[in-house]
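BUG: 3D viewer hangs when loading the predicted structure for this chain

Environment: internal workstation, default settings.
Expected: structure renders.
Actual: progress bar stalls at 90%.

Input used:
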Amino acid sequence: MTAVAETVEVTVGIDIGTTSVKAIAVDAHGEVCARTRIPHAINAPIPAVLEHDAAAVWHTGVIKACDSVSADHRVAGIGLAAMVPSLAAVDANGMPVSPGILYGDHRGYHPDGEFVGFLRSLEQAVPDAHAYWPAQAVASHALCGAAAIDGVTAMTCLPVFGADGWDAQWCDPGKLPHLAMDSTPIGERGDAPVAAGTVDALAEQLVAGADSPGDVLVICGTTLITWAVGEGWPEAEGLWTIPHLQPGLSAIGGPSNAGGLFLERVRGLTGDPTAEPDHPDRVPLWVPYIRGERTPRHDPDLRAALVGLDVGHTPADVLAAAYEAAGFVVRHHLDLAGTNPQRIVAVGGGTQVERWMQALADATNLPVDVTAVPEGAARGAAWLARICAGLESGDWAEARRWARTGHRVEPRPDWAEACNRRYPQWRAACDSQSEAAQ
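Structure tokens produced before the viewer hung:
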């Protein structure tokens, strides 16, 4: 008689990213038992627009991803994470009837904040919509019939979200998702409880392991995000400061458009050559602001520029300059933050690009500890699903036991020295571009 293998109990984490929906099934030890990635398009015909097909991505893509990794496992809970802010109009069945507006879209340029801008735009475009939901709420409704977001996501909706919940002066609260302010399940898919959706950057932070002063968490996704961990509450012009999960610590930094969105464009322009530059001093400079910049410049009108190109430069030199520019953006954040960085903890899908990781080390002259699991936001969501399912305490800091380093990338001395010489030139080029945009 053949023995039947016992199925593994897992929690499922889903991450709605800018260019794909990722889902993983994770066991109690943080090991990935199944994974899937469902790519999708972004609608960005001009720099001022950034949209998803919300029905295809936030609804259908999430269901497909969840079901793909749930097969052959006993699912104990399901968690969700997504980029912020985002918003779509939905009908009475919870199906989006408008595009999903994403962070950085021009409709968010509103004196009362990006979320208010999105909301006012959709109220005008789809005035008879049943409701207006961010990606997390559309996804949770698709999975379990309940549209909900957690308190962290709600904080990104200020001032529509206030001390007492949704503020009726901005919108009918009935047109906004349920606020799940604790870990109580919002519904079930099959027998698995579903946790309210959260912010992708928080989910990444949970399981990254950047938990000590001197650590720098760098999220290498479509958006490049830098968080320098330190004591107290440092502040710097142009940067954001947020609480850290560890008591007494905070993180300072913020998002930049110099991540995968910029690098993918340069790879396409150059043909993505595999060759390395001939010499570390023979590299031009990229001003990497392909669709404006978030922190620290906060200027949606900035555009990219290639500086110092000469007849001797090759496509490999131009691509190397792009990876280096992404590294210089991190270095710029760290310079402004005024912390004492000791190492970079790199997470996100971009960690699978070796040249990006090496350039990050060279440009900052810091060692880069590359995560073993690139789907960090999905993994963090899977941890939150364990809390929702009653398998863990509510102490988010305990998630650090899932932190895994795959390998370390050290700066190359000759390239680090060349980067030290180029960095002031890069700063000057970016400043000049900023002045020209004004």
